[in-house]
Specification:
The structure holds two protein chains of two kinds. Chain A is mostly helical. Chain A contains 15 helices and two strands. Chain A has a single domain (about 65-285), classed as MetI-like fold (Orthogonal Bundle). Chain A has helices spanning about 1-5, 10-35, 55-60, 60-95, 100-115, 115-125, 135-140, 155-180, 185-195, 200-210, 210-225, 230-235, 245-255, 260-285, 290-304, and strands at about 40, 50. In chain A, strand 1 (about 40) and strand 2 (about 50) form a beta hairpin. In chain A, helix 3 (about 55-60) crosses helix 14 (about 260-285), helix 8 (about 155-180) runs antiparallel to helix 11 and helix 13 runs antiparallel to helix 14 (about 260-285). Chain B has two domains: about 50-175 and about 345-375, D-Maltodextrin-Binding Protein, domain 2 (3-Layer(aba) Sandwich); about 180-340 and about 400-455, 3-Layer(aba) Sandwich (D-Maltodextrin-Binding Protein, domain 2). The longest helix of chain B has 22 residues, at about 355-375. The radius of gyration of chain B is 25 Å and the shape is globular. Chain B starts with a helix and ends with a helix. The chains are: A mainly alpha, B alpha/beta.
Chain lengths: ~300, ~450
């Protein structure tokens, strides 16, 4: 292996196809997104260079503010819901004594393999204010709480977030289960010898050792929340009005409904930057404590 | 040896990737010199000459396949298309159409085709896209073909407005004539609950109350689609200003004018009174239509094309009413003012088609046959061309009534899909959907519409 790593031509040759694909299908389009965001462009032709005008308009656009607020709500809701439930279920089902483990593991994962469209149609039926399951349950229980779940300008975003959270919770659950399985049993035996309860063992052993898995889960939830689109596209079309818009939906509206591709690209650029910031912050938060402390120490030293 | 094998593998991998990315030239629709042309190289439509030569095409018996991008989703679109294809076989035996069904995607697919130089030979196009395609040279000017084929002469005088673009050119062959937003009502339900057909909004509010008291949905609307909520708003706005949303689209008015604010306030009042079903903003067409056809809702708003289906299901129990207004005088005056309209849209032709002129002839032919099929089989005389066919069935009474009313009409607006200002179109669709929410204020609505108009 050491010999292979010293063979630079081989490394280059093996890396070139992947780099080529990445450059053509990821890097170049992202560069183009930023480039076209400075143009007044209708999607056809070359467009006219207008500098930062698209960004100026974007920051003044009330829908931009709504989109950012919704992104925060969406990302926050799905992160809290998914990570809390996925962690709880994974920790409970990691216990060999729990009955029906196999069934529950499959059950939690089933929504993940369903098409988003199917899931959205399912929840559209459940949320239907006239004949939906949710309102019917309230009615049968004698609770006067009929709601227009998807027609409420303030709460529709939470209803949509819940759908996404419900569907993808199983994915995070699977990641955490895999992480738990990779923890050697010796640690738990040692904890048991030290007199730790199951809860304490999970708190002191399982969760700290799942740090990298949690980092991935958090990245998926937060970036997934910020760039949410499919659920609102299928369930509310961004409505009522524009109350469930996100930046992705704003980009879609500008580019594909208004033929303002330049403006849409400006929105997409902000989205890319937001996702990058989220990833950087998560990476920073999850850095080794020692490394982080040392860096802060150096910064403080320099400041003094 | 290992190194050689590795190199060989990488070479094969790269080769297969490039092979997969390449595109096999289609003999049916594109020639190598035109098919690969991207939009960057194009010129505006006015300067664009068709790439193909139809004389040669027609003179020979060469089998020609033209690609066509058209609606083909329900009886209203399938029947005319199938009829046109059958007729085409008789008139152009050497021409075959290869259909690609139009996606309901606000024209995104068509835009992508245009951007990548892959437009079909013939395509159905909306007005907003025509404006884009004019600038980028993706649409053929059809003036000469319209004259040569006699298409221009067959267009009803009343439909000339939907033949010519603002710049005076013909970019698409229309088939639908001016169409109308029709306010349907179930006569049987109205009679059962002794409700008079409302002439004023006050009477409408009384009717809403009676229907609500009897667990009848006053009006079902498919609010998941923005065009119908825009149409509903337009119907109300035209009671105060005959220009309706078309006036705003043309840049001749501001949403702050009383007419538009009054309309927003009235729509808000009607929503609060319970005019629509509770899940109106997420109800799709099928659901809303079923509510009306099943007798669960007393009224329904849709285009006149729904007349055939409504009459087939509800028979004599269904009729349309003139739009209610703020008082009886304006109600009477408003009978001549309709929401709806037409636009210079229809079948367009790709100027880079290998058989551009033939495609243009075929497009004109198909549009004409669409008109025939609509009259003959779909019970609608509201077509763009004066066609010499007799309907297989008598027009429904509602259609006859509408047809008799057309000469009295003095003003018509636009459907949302005929709006030329794409930003305004998006705003009016989104914001009128928003008006279905009780706590969305008319003032917020007006502000958002003005913001859109200012861009």
């Amino acid at each position: 292996m050491k010999k292979f790593y010293s063979n630079k031509p081989a490394i280059i040759l093996f890396a070139v196809p992947a780099l080529f694909v990445f450059t053509v299908f990821v890097f170049y389009p992202i560069v183009q997104v930023f480039n076209k965001s400075f143009y007044d462009w209708n999607g056809l032709g070359t467009g006219t260079f207008i500098g930062f005008e698209n960004y100026t308009k974007l920051f003044k656009d009330t829908v931009f503010k709504i989109s950012n607020k919704n992104a925060l709500i969406f990302a926050g809701t799905i992160t809290i819901f998914q990570m809390t439930l996925a962690s709880t279920f994974a920790l409970v089902l990691s216990n060999q004594r729990v009955k029906g483990r196999e069934f529950l593991r499959i059950a939690y994962f089933i929504p993940v393999v369903l098409s988003v469209t199917v899931v959205c149609q399912l929840w559209l039926a459940i949320f239907n204010s006239d004949s939906g399951l949710l309102n019917t349950i309230f009615q049968r229980l004698g609770i006067n709480y009929r709601q227009n779940w998807l027609s409420n300008r303030y709460y529709a975003i939470y209803a949509i977030s819940f759908v996404n959270a419900w569907q993808w919770m199983g994915y995070q659950f699977a990641l955490l289960m895999a992480g738990i399985k990779s923890i050697p049993n010796d640690y738990y035996e040692a904890a048991k010898i030290d007199g730790a309860s199951t809860f304490l063992a999970h708190m002191k052993v399982t969760i700290p050792l799942l740090k990298e898995t949690y980092k991935i889960c958090l990245t998926i939830s937060l970036t997934g929340g910020v760039k949410a689109f499919t659920e609102m596209f299928i369930m509310t079309k961004g409505g009522p009005g524009n109350s469930t818009y996100t930046l992705t939906y704003l980009m879609y509206k500008a580019a594909f409904r208004e033929f303002r591709y330049g403006y849409g690209m400006a929105s997409a650029s902000i989205l890319v930057i937001q996702c990058l910031i989220i990833i950087l912050v998560i990476n920073w938060l999850f850095r080794d404590r020692e490394g982080r402390d040392a860096k802060w120490g150096r910064i403080k030293e320099k400041a003094n | 040896m290992k190194r050689v094998t590795a190199l060989l593998l990488i070479f094969v991998l790269c080769l297969s990737m490039f092979a997969a990315c390449s595109k096999k030239p289609s003999q049916e629709t594109k020639t190598p010199d035109t098919g690969k042309q991207t939009n960057q190289d194009k010129e505006p439509a006015k300067d664009k000459e068709p790439a193909g030569d139809s004389t040669e095409d027609v003179a020979t018996d060469e089998e020609i396949t033209l690609s066509i991008y058209a609606q083909y989703a329900d009886d209203d679109t399938k029947v005319p298309y199938d009829y046109a294809v059958e007729e085409l076989k008789k008139a152009y035996p050497n021409v075959t159409l290869k259909l690609e069904v139009q996606a309901q995607d606000d024209g995104q697919k068509l835009m992508t085709y245009a951007a990548t130089g892959n437009l079909p030979d013939i395509y159905q196009v909306a007005l907003a896209q025509i404006e884009n395609f004019k600038q980028s040279g993706n649409i053929m000017v059809l003036n000469d073909i319209a004259k040569a084929t006699g298409f221009e002469d067959k267009v009803f005088d009343s439909a000339k407005n939907i033949l010519y673009n603002e710049d005076g050119n013909i970019y698409a062959f229309p088939y639908a004539g001016n169409e109308y937003v029709v306010w349907y009502y179930n006569k049987a339900i109205f009679e059962k609950y002794n409700v008079e057909v409302p002439k004023t909004f006050d009477q409408l509010l009384e009717a809403i109350q009676i229907f609500r008291d009897n667990d009848i949905i006053p009006m079902s609307i498919f609010g998941a689609e923005g065009w119908i909520t825009a149409a509903m708003y337009d119907v109300i706005a035209t009671r105060w200003d005959a220009g309706g949303i078309a006036k705003l689209d043309d840049g001749k008015g501001s949403a702050s004018e009383d007419a538009y604010l009054n309309a927003a306030k009235m729509m808000n009042t009607l929503v609060k009174a319970g005019l629509f079903q509770s899940s109106a903003s997420s109800t799709n067409y099928d659901q809303a239509a079923q509510l009306f056809l099943n007798g669960e809702s007393a009224m329904f708003i849709n285009g006149q094309w729904f007349i055939t289906d409504a009459a087939a299901t509800l028979g004599d129990d269904v009729d349309w009413m003139y739009y209610p207004s703020y008082d009886e005088a304006s109600y009477e005056a408003g009978k001549a003012v309709w929401s709806g309209g037409g636009a210079a849209a229809g079948y367009a032709v790709n100027p880079d088609s290998q058989h551009a002129e033939l495609a243009a002839e075929v497009a004109a032919f198909i549009s004409e046959k669409y008109c025939e099929a609509k009259v003959k089989y779909r019970g609608t005389p509201l077509v763009a061309l004066d066609v010499d066919v007799q309907p297989e069935m008598e027009f429904p009474a509602m259609m006859q009534k509408l047809q008799a009313d057309i000469p009295n009409q003095t003003s018509i607006t636009k459907f949302a899909w005929h709006l030329t200002n794409a930003i305004f179109k998006t705003a009016i669709e989104d914001q009128t959907k928003y008006l279905l929410v009780e706590d969305y204020s008319p003032e917020e609505f007006i502000t958002e519409i003005n913001n859109a108009l200012a861009q």
